[in-house]
Amino acid sequence: MAGERVFRFRVAVDDAVRGRVEDVDLRLARHPSETDEHLVLRVLARCLLGDATARLSPGVCRGDEPPLSVPGDGPAPRLWIEVGRPSPARLERAARRAEAVAVLAEAGWRPAPPRARRPVSVLELPAGLPARLAARLERTTRWRLRRTAAELAVEGPGWTESGPLLARELPAGP
Fold first, then answer.
1. How many domains does the chain have?
2. Residue 155, domain member (yes or no)
C-alpha cells in the first residue's frame, strides 16, 4: 500500500518469567495511519506475550482483528493480544472470540471493567517506554530485550531503556 514503511526488527529476547530465550526477526509494514509508538507496541507484544506461532496483523487497518494472535487448535485464537488502550467493548469482543485475552499497555492504563466472560491479562510497560523506543527506530532496528518478574530492559547500540514491569488482571465481568 502506498505510504507504508517497512521496518525490520531483530530482537534477542531473554525472558526469565516465561523461561524463553529466542531471536525474533520481524519485518513489519507500518500503515500510514499507524504511529511509531503503536508499531513498537506490536513488536514488544510479540516478544513479551507471543511465541514463534504468533501472527501479527497488517497494522491498524483491520478493526475486527487482533494486533497479534496465537493460533489455537480450532478457528478461534488461543490468545488474542491487544496493545495500547483498547476499549472495554473491544476487550469484550476479544473475549468472545478467543480462549484468552492479553493487553500490552503503558503504565497507568485503567479501563472501565469489560463485561468479559473471562479475565483479561494486562502487562504494563514502564511509563514513556514506547515513545522512547519509537524515537530510536531505524529501518533495521536491533534490540536486546531482558525481562525479569519486575523489570524490563531494552538495549540498543550504546543505549539502554529500562523500568518496572507490572502484570495484573482485569477480572471477568458479570
1. 1
2. yes
